[in-house]
From TrEMBL:
Gene3D superfamilies: 2.40.160.20. It comes from the Bacteria. SUPFAM superfamilies: OMPA-like. It is found in: Cell outer membrane. PANTHER family: BLL7405 PROTEIN. It holds the Pfam family OMP_b-brl. This is Porin. InterPro entries: Beta-barrel_OMP, OMP-like, OMP/PagP_B-barrel. Residues 1-22 form the signal peptide. Keywords: Cell outer membrane, Membrane, Signal. Belongs to the Omp25/RopB family. Residues 11-255 form the Outer membrane protein beta-barrel domain. One of its GO terms (cellular component) is cell outer membrane.
Length: 255
């Protein structure tokens, strides 16, 4: 009887010790939760490359020469492509993204046209028998950006200053008597304003692609044509108004 009681007591002690050890192991070895991936952020500097297509309107008005005898107007369209680079910085607050951006582009946006005189389309431009022509060979913007981020997708609007290098030509060609021909060109950098909007998608942590539209108004500027030779045509000045619409696609790398 005593031996049976002693065996029962030893068995109970062993069971109690095993239960305590199991409880201790459960306390010391918790199951770890899977780590949570950090939220994507648009904050940081970036550089990029872009290309696109532009269409523009150019008009000449208030034309006058030394004798104030020529007052015809000319209006025509331009179009062409562009390619360039961009640099900027974003700062994200919750889902609001603030930024500044500058871009510069080589361009080949050109066109030509004739005047509308006395209700009929003439074959000359302002005072010549050749159409006027205009070309934008470089342009860029300096803008502020305001966007709303949906994780890796950014919708944004932008606005600020714009510039473009614009060249205008005019002249007259006399094939029978070349000595009566004359021509002139004028090239300058013009400043104006721009507004635009776009969407950007971060397809990798540091890489994103964008599509964007810009409207640029270069304002009204006086353009003076000094003809060579000036024997038959004195210099004259016209007011040029130029607006540009452009669509760009690009890729950016964020630091």
């Amino acid at each position: 009887m005593r031996k049976s009681l002693l065996a029962t007591t030893i068995l109970a002690a062993m069971v109690a010790a095993g239960a305590a050890q199991a409880a201790d192991l459960a306390t010391k070895m918790p199951v770890k939760a899977a780590p949570v991936a950090p939220a994507f952020s648009w904050t940081g500097f970036y550089i990029g490359a872009q290309g696109g297509y532009a269409w523009a309107d150019n008009s000449f008005s208030n034309t006058h020469d030394l004798y104030n005898t020529y007052a015809n107007d000319a209006s025509y369209t331009l179009d062409g492509g562009l390619v360039g680079g961009v640099i900027g910085y974003n700062y994200q607050i919750n889902n609001i993204v603030l930024g500044v951006e500058a871009d510069a582009n080589w361009a080949d946006i050109s066109g030509s046209g004739s005047v509308l005189r006395a209700g009929e389309l003439a074959t000359n431009c302002i005072v010549s028998n050749n159409p006027c022509s205009s070309k934008i060979d470089a342009l860029g913007t300096i803008t502020a950006r305001l966007g709303v981020a949906f994780d890796r997708v950014l919708l944004y609007a932008k606005g600020g200053a714009a510039w473009a290098n614009v060249k205008h030509t005019a002249g007259s060609t006399d094939y029978e008597y070349p000595e009566f021909s004359y021509s002139a060109s004028n090239s300058n950098t013009r400043w104006g304003w721009t507004v635009g909007a776009g969407v950007e998608w971060a397809f990798f942590n540091n890489w994103s692609a964008k599509v964007e539209y810009n409207y640029i108004d270069l304002g009204s500027n006086d353009v003076t044509f000094n003809f060579v030779p000036n024997t038959y045509m004195p210099a004259y000045t016209s007011t040029a108004d130029t607006t540009v619409n452009l669509v760009k696609a690009g890729i950016n790398y964020r630091f």
